[in-house]
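I hope you will forgive my troubling you with a question about protein structure. I am sending you one protein, given as its amino acid sequence and as whole-number tokens for its backbone shapes. Thank you for your consideration; the sequence and its tokens are set out here:
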Amino acid sequence: MNSTAVSPPLGRLPAVRHDANGHRRVDMGAVAALALPLMLNSAVQLVLNLTDAWFIGRLSVEAMAALGATHFLAIVFFLAFGGVGLCIQTLVAQAYGARANRRASRATWWGLWAALCTLPPFLAVALPARPLLGLFGLDPAVQDLAAQYWTPRLLGGPLAVGLWAVSGFFNGIGRTRVTLVVMLVVAVVNALLNEILIFRLGLGMAGSAWATTASLGLGCALIVALFLSAALQAEYRTRRTWRASAKGLRLVFALGIPTGVFPAVDLVAISLFQLMQVRLGTVEGAATQIVMMLTAIAYLPAIGIAMAGTTLVGQSIGAGDRAWAGRLGDRIIALTTAYMGTVGILIGLGGPWLIPLFTDPEDPAAAAVLAAGLRLVWIAGAYQVFDALNLASAFCLRGAGDVRAPTLYVIALAWLGFVPLAHMASFAPGQGWVDALPQLGWGSVGGWMAALVYVVALGLVMWLRWRSGVWRRLQV
């Protein structure tokens, strides 16, 4: 884009400043003001995950392996059913950029009605815990612990979707500090309830899941109350736009289903990958779960930066300036890549000190878990730059409403590439789930190398989709 002077658009164009010659420049201060609370918000999600892992790690290595078998699998269902909440940020950002405040409020209510519609499917997968987890051939002790965690965790699904929908409103209008405060409350309550329910009331794995569900319920109630506050009623008419609309719900589901399926498909593949590692053995499963939790130090705060891309791109498109949307998206992608690349190196270097935090030193398997984790942590660190390209590009594309083609790309790469490759690399003959596939028997290192190949390919594909500019021609 050239640096010629331009007249300001009619809408709300974000993160723009004009130099002395009237040329447009990216206001990095405005980008930081938007992205930093989102980054901290995602860091709070990291704290939530690490809190659960730390408390569960105090139970046993088997409990940590059970968390590894269920953690991403649970998130798969949250995302697959919860895209109707995640897509609200795009709708609100574009409405805000167009100065259509009532439309932003109405879209949020559509998201809340859609969240209510997710109750039946969440019940359908929450209740049959043992038959569902029994499909994966886990060690009986690990399977029993995983089933204890599964049902109460999945029952919190509709609460999470409602929280995402209203968070999307605040993020879409640029008030990201509100969602940060709400998530801080959720994190503190979750930590307190983990201690009480797991140990003082003796609920074990189920106690951790109930703690998370209860804290999500509190967060959902709090953020809805803020959405209905007098100040937002005056500006956005939030108390007058609550009626459900068939047209609005169709729009939310049309945009929300691919929005949720995109990360869900990726996480299905990751979940199967983790289940493969648990099938290899308790030590391999626990080490994989710990390293996955450590990579969250990179990708969860980075999701906050990438979410700023959704808002900035969406607001720019709403304001009628797609060229500016592209410029801001490029800047977000660069920032995300720099952050995750740096953290990837730090995770590798810090492995010897970080991994023991998630094991009981008195456990006989603790030394073996540390040794296995040290072999895997550098592989995980190596793909962080490409995961950044994937995340940032995908979230910027989401801001433009370009979610269908990226979803097809991730389906192809995950199911035709990553899953079979991880199976072949991880298992020796007769050890895996599908004997028809070649089985190389490289163990957990082989499985993680397959993950490296997958993330590199996915990151490049998503970045090339963004750079192609196809999204500039789409209408939401």
